[in-house]
Amino acid sequence: MASDGSFFRYGERQIAAKPEDCPAMSSMLSLEDLPDALLAEIVKRITNTSDLKSISLVSKRLYTIEAEQRSSIRVGSDLCPAIDALSALCSRFPNLLEVEMDYSGWKFHWNLLEKHIFSLHFPVLRDLTLYIDDIRMGCLASCKNLMSLRLNSVSAIGLCGLLSVAVGCKNLTSLHIIKCNHIVGSDKWLEYIGSAGSLEELVVKNCKRISQYDLLKFGPGWMKLKKFEFKFKRSFNTYEPRDPCYVDNYQYGYDFCCESLRDVTLATIVTKPEIGLRCLLTKCKALERLCLHYVIGISDHDIITISQNCSNLRSISLSQEMLLCEIPGGTGVMARTPLTDDSLNALALRSHMLEAVELMFYGCAPDWPSEIAFTQDGLVTLLQSCPIRHLVLRGANFFDDEGMEALSCAQFLETLELMQCVAVTDVGMRFLAQSPCLKNLTLQMCYEVTDDGVCEVAHARDLESLTVESCNQISVEALHGAAKSVHYKVDCPSYYDRYKD
Predict the structure, then answer these.
(1) What Rg value do the Cα atoms of the chain yield, rounded?
(2) Domain end (from 23, 54, 69)
(3) Domain of 434?
(4) What letter would DSSP give residue 250?
(5) What is the DSSP string of 297-365?
(6) Cα separation, 161 vs 204, whole angstroms
(7) According to the 3-state scheme, what is the secondary structure of 92-147?
(8) Which residues form the F-box domain (predicted)?
(9) Which residues make Cβ contacts (< 8 Å) with residue 448, sequence separation at least 6?
(10) Contact by Cβ (8 Å): 326, 300
(11) Residues 459 and 428: beta-carbon distance below 8 Å
(12) Is 243 within the bounds of a domain?
C-alpha cells in the first residue's frame, strides 16, 4: 500500500488504499429504511460476481433485488444435470440478457437446444455465447429477441442450423464465430445472411475452413456492416491461397459496398493485389479503426489509399515482421518490414483525426535497426502532425532517446506504451518527464531504463497508472507512490498472447 493512499499492484494483487473514498458513517441506517430503487442502484454499481453473491446473503430484500438486477451469467460444465440447473437459474434470475455457456468436451446427450431451453427460460435473451458440442442450432431460431450470438469451439456447425438462425433471429446484429473448424458450406450461409443484411458486426477468428474468399460471398451484407474482424493464429492461413472465382478484369465478386464499415481487423492472412479481403482497404470511406496484423502483401500503396479515402480514421494498429522486399530500382531484394516512411508520411499529411497509433515489429534484431523500414524521422513527423493521445511501440529498434525528446513535445499524448524498445534509456525518460499531458505509462522489456529514469517521470508527472514488466533494472521499491495505480511484474506475457483466441 502506498503511503499517499494510492493503488498499488504487485504481481496479480492490487490494493485499494484511499480512505477518503470510504468515510465513516455517523449513523447506521437499516436496510428497511432504504427504498427499493436506491438498493437497486447500489446493486447495479457492484460488478464483482463474488461481491454480488455476498450481498444477496445479507437480507431477503437484497436477495430478491440482486436477482432482478442480474442481466448476465456464465454457465460452466460443473452444473449438472444441465436442464434442471438452467431452469433453477432462470427462476432465480428472470431478466437475463446475456448468457455464456461452456459445455465443451461433454459427450452426454442432453439435447439442450432441442428442448427449446433458451426460448422457454430466457424470454428476453439478447446475447448468447455457446461453447457446447451440439450441432442442433436450428432451435435457436425460436429466440426472437436474440441480437448477439457467439459460437466458440463448436465442433460441428450444420448449414441448416446456421440458416435457421439467420431466418428466425430477425434481430441478430452481431455474429462471432471462433475456433469452429469444421463448418460445412460456409459460402452458402454467408451468402444468405448477407442477403438479409441485418448484421452490423461479423467476427471470424481461427476457423480453418472459412477463407477470405468465402467472406466475399457476404455480398449486400457488407453495406450495413460496421465492424469486421478476420484473423488466424500465428500460423498463416494458406487455405485457398488464391480466389478460385477471380478472373482478371472481371471483378464481379468484388463489386460490393461497405461504406458503413468503421472498424476493420485483418490478422495473419496472405493477400494479393486487388484480390481477397485486401479490397476492403479501398472501399471503407467511414473507417475509424484499422488493425493490420501480419498481413502479407500489404504495401505503402494500401496505407496511402486509406489516408486519402478515410478522413475519419482515429486509430491504426500495424504489426509487421521481416519479409523479402524488392530494393528500389529493382537491383535485388532485402529482408525488412514491408511498410516504409511513405505510409507514415501519408497518415501525417491527411489523417488529422488520428488519436491512437500502435506499431509492432517481430523478428527484427536490435543491432540492425535497418530491418525496420520505418524510421524515427517518419514517426516524429506523424507525432507532430496528428493529435496522438495513445502511442504503443513494440520492438521499435529505431526509436531511441532522441525520439523520446520529440515525444516529450507531443501536446496531446496521454498514454505511452514502450515494449522491447531497447534503445530507450534514462536520458529518454528525463525528456519524457516534460511531456505535458502524460497520464499512463507502460514499460515492458526496456532493459536500459533504471529506477532513476522511472522516478524522474513519476515525480514530474501526476500519473494515473504505471505498468512495469520484465525491466530488470527497475525495482518494485522504486515504484511506491509513483502513480495512483501501479502494476509490477518480474516477467511478462508472451509476445503472441493476444493471438490465442
Answers:
(1) 26
(2) 69
(3) 400-501
(4) B
(5) T--HHHHHHHHHH-TT--EEEEEEE-EEEEPTTSS-EEEE-S--HHHHHHHHHH-TT--EEEEEEES--
(6) 17
(7) HCCCCCEEEECCCCCCCCCCCHHHCHHHHHCCCCCEEEECCCCCCHHHHHHCCCCC
(8) 28-75
(9) 422, 423, 424, 425, 426, 473
(10) no
(11) no
(12) no
Please give the single-letter amino acid code of residue 88.
A
* Cβ atoms 154, 131 nearer than 8 A: yes
C-alpha cell of residue 466: 504505471
Tell me 249's DSSP state.
Answer: T
Q: Per-residue pLDDT tens for 310-366? A: 999 999 999 999 888 877 776 778 888 999 999 999 999 999 999 999 999 998 888
CA distance linking residue 10 with residue 477, whole number of Å: 11
Domain of 42, CATH number, reads 1.20.1280
Bridge partners of 336?
A: 323
Q: Which residues pair with 355 in a beta bridge?
A: none
Find the DSSP H helices in 386-462.
Answer: 401-407, 426-432, 451-460
Residue 380 has φ and ψ, to the nearest 5°, of -65, -40
* Helices and strands (H, E) in the chain, number of each type: 14, 20
Count of the separate structural domains present in the chain: 2
β partners of residue 149: 128, 175
Per the domain annotation, does 118 fall within a domain?
Answer: no
The pLDDT tens digits of the residues spanning 132-158 come to 554 556 667 777 778 888 888 776 665
* Nearest Cα residue to 187 out of 207, 216, 164: 216
CATH of the domain at 483: 3.80.10.10
Cell of 299: 504495401
Tell me whether strands 356-362 and 390-394 are parallel, antiparallel or unpaired.
Answer: parallel
The β-bridge relationship of strands 415-419 and 390-394 is: parallel
Element (H, E) at 203: strand 201-205
Report helix, strand or coil for 290: strand
Reported pTM: 0.78
Longest dimension (CA), the chain: 84
Residue at 434 is within a domain: yes
Residue 497: CB partners within 8 Å, gap ≥ 6? none
Q: C-alpha cell of 223?
A: 453495406
469 inside domain: yes
CA 21 to CA 18: how far, in whole Å? 6
DSSP annotation of 41 reads H
pLDDT at residue 203 is higher than 50: yes
Task: Please give the Cα distance from 98 to 231 (Å, whole number).
Answer: 25
Distance separating alpha carbons of residues 342 and 92, to the nearest angstrom: 59
Q: How much is the mean pLDDT over the chain?
A: 81
CA distance 6 to 498: 29
* Secondary structure class of 16 (helix, strand, coil): coil
Residue at grid coordinates 493521445: 389
Angle between helices 300-309 and 341-350 (to 10 degrees): 0
